């Protein structure tokens, strides 16, 4: 039975979710991206972007050994959650080695939370003053899931997650894509959604990131569902953007969060 989950905004801007283990998730809501234009703030932001992009590259290189694996007996393949955990272990370890674990905090969701909110983990980027600069809510998947026939494994997983969604009416009857968008909306303007795809047809060891805003535009442009829009975007978009550039654009201090255009981020 799924425990009751509620979301409310407190005076300190902290999400409270009753029924979940304390400390398993920490998200700040309602804080605006800092507009301070000091050299110190810019230097700190550039440092965060540098360590983050290096950490993503390091974790992706470690994960590549497991991508594209084909069981000769066709009995199994690594689950998306397993790939996510390998990626995150290496990313977090890298941040710790660089002494940046307080500037870049990674919060892994439980399976139940992931099913409910459409979020697998959250990256929270903060300054030394603990002021949040940006939050990135990530939904991870293997792109092969998007090519499954109707009623395939991807949809079976979503069917299981609908049970968890009953715990909060905000997320009922939503696809994983809709849940991620709603979660980011509830957290506030300093939160962006990011899809991380492990493996691409023809390039099984690629790891690509696609911002939620790009998928939303693809939905409107081509009148596709979130799942089909993501598939179309990843396979039909040739323009790439380095992770560091993507992050610097999202952390733009002159006009808040900026659009990065119709591009994807190649993690490797």
From TrEMBL:
**GO terms (BP aspect):** receptor recycling; transferrin transport
What GO cellular-component annotations does this UniProt entry give? endosome membrane; recycling endosome
Write down the InterPro entries for this protein, in alphabetical order. Answer: Rab15_effector (IPR027985)
Its name, as the record gives it, is Rab15 effector protein
User: Whose protein is this, by species?
Assistant: Lepidothrix coronata (blue-crowned manakin)
Name of the gene encoding the protein in the UniProt record: REP15
């Amino acid at each position: 039975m799924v425990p009751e989950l509620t979301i409310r905004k407190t005076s300190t801007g902290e999400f409270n979710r009753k029924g979940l283990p304390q400390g398993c998730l920490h998200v700040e809501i309602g804080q605006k991206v800092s507009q301070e234009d000091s050299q110190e703030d810019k230097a700190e932001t550039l440092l965060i972007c540098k360590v983050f992009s290096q950490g993503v590259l390091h974790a992706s290189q470690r994960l590549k050994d497991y991508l594209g694996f084909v069981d000769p007996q066709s009995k199994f393949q690594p689950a998306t959650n397993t790939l996510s955990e390998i990626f995150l272990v290496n990313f977090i370890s890298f941040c710790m080695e660089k002494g940046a674990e307080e500037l870049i905090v990674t919060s892994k969701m439980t399976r139940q939370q992931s099913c409910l909110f459409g979020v697998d983990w959250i990256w929270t980027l903060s300054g030394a003053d603990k002021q949040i600069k940006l939050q990135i809510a990530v939904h991870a998947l293997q792109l092969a899931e998007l090519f499954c026939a109707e009623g395939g494994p991807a949809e079976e997983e979503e069917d299981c997650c609908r049970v968890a969604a009953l715990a909060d009416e905000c997320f009922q009857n939503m696809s994983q894509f809709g849940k991620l968008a709603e979660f980011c909306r509830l957290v506030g303007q300093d939160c962006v959604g990011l899809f991380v795809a492990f493996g691409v047809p023809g390039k099984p060891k690629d790891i690509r990131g696609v911002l939620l805003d790009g998928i939303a535009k693809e939905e409107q442009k081509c009148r596709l569902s979130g799942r089909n829009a993501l598939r179309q975007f990843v396979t039909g978009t040739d323009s790439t953007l380095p992770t560091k550039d993507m992050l610097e654009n999202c952390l733009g201090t002159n006009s808040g969060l900026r659009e990065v255009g119709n591009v994807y981020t190649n993690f490797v």
